[in-house]
Amino acid sequence: MLCYPEQFTIADDETPLEELKTPEIFSCNNPFNNSWLLNQPEKQIKSTETSDLFVTNDFTDEVLQVVDKDDFTPSMSFSPADSSSDGLPSPSTLPSEPPSLETTLAHAIEPKKLAEWMVEDYVSHKRRRPYLQEFLRLLLDKPHYLDHASYININKGIFKLHKPQEIATLWQNVKGRYTVRNMTYDKMARALRLYYKSGIMTPVNGRYTFQFGPQSGFNTSWIPKLNAHKSLTYSTNHPISNAK
DNA sequence: CCAACCTTTCCTGCTT
DNA sequence: AAAGCAGGAAAGGTTG
């Protein structure tokens, strides 16, 4: 069965098409690591919420403005030959061996792309890369990633990964942790299953389907941003039998 | 250096 | 048969 029969229409989403690309690959041991971002002045942090974990979507735009003022020149460009439409290597072309340094650098993410994934730790008030659960929250909050993952029951926090391998690769890049092997959906899913015991995730039937658990803060300390997106319409051509 | 935390990696067995 | 799911076990990377 196809993974993503769902179709979405976002009536007033003015995001231009060129912005709808998945951030490129980067590595923590390359020149484009987050040291640049972490060295930005503290005034860029806007803490306006008191939830246990404040995902800092709100300061992203401000950070990006500063990036632009610093005359940052993107080093990457895309062409149709770059395999998938989102700029990431397709699962079938992912190497089984660790990428060479040249490969890693060639796919380095831009700091301005990394900015949209940074979160502010509520304890230390420092910006850091997200945990896996936070990464998924951010991913699901971004309308331009609806083709990667989306809620299938937004009130219960049930979501489905439509492009699991692409998300796993993106997760590896956002996490920025040096690992010898590439991240796979299988390994990312194992990490998600570890959340079951702590209640951050709740087991739910369905292929590539997960549910935020009570300890994730879903619908208590935070709600999906798309829940407030009144112009979002959702339809499906096929029944999602596993949705509760 | 150490310990805690959060994965990452590998694996076996089961299910779809 | 292949792929995904569940979860044990151990190891790794980061951070304070």
Element layout with pairings:
Elements: E1 6-10, H1 35-38, H2 60-69, H3 101-106, H4 111-115, E2 119-120, E3 127-128, H5 132-141, E4 149-153, E5 158-161, H6 164-175, H7 185-198, E6 201-202, E7 209-212, E8 232-236
Antiparallel strand pairs: 1-8, 2-3, 4-5, 5-7, 6-7
The structure holds a DNA duplex (16 and 16 nucleotides).
Q: Rg, please?
A: 18 Å
User: Globular, elongated, flat, extended or rod-shaped: what is the shape?
Assistant: globular
CATH superfamily: Winged helix-like DNA-binding domain superfamily/Winged helix DNA-binding domain
Q: Summarize the amount of helix as a percent range.
A: 25-40%
Q: How many structural domains are formed by the residues?
A: 1
Provide an overview of this structure.
By secondary structure, this protein is of the alpha+beta class. The chain has one domain: Winged helix-like DNA-binding domain superfamily/Winged helix DNA-binding domain (Arc Repressor Mutant, subunit A, Orthogonal Bundle). Helix content is 25%, strand content 12%. It contains 7 helices and 8 strands, in the order βααααββαββααβββ. It has a 4-stranded antiparallel sheet. It has a two-stranded antiparallel ribbon with strand order 1-8. A hairpin with a 6-residue loop joins β2 and β3. It is globular, with a radius of gyration of 18 Å. 29% of the residues are buried. The N terminus and C terminus are likely disordered. The structure holds a DNA duplex (16 and 16 nucleotides).
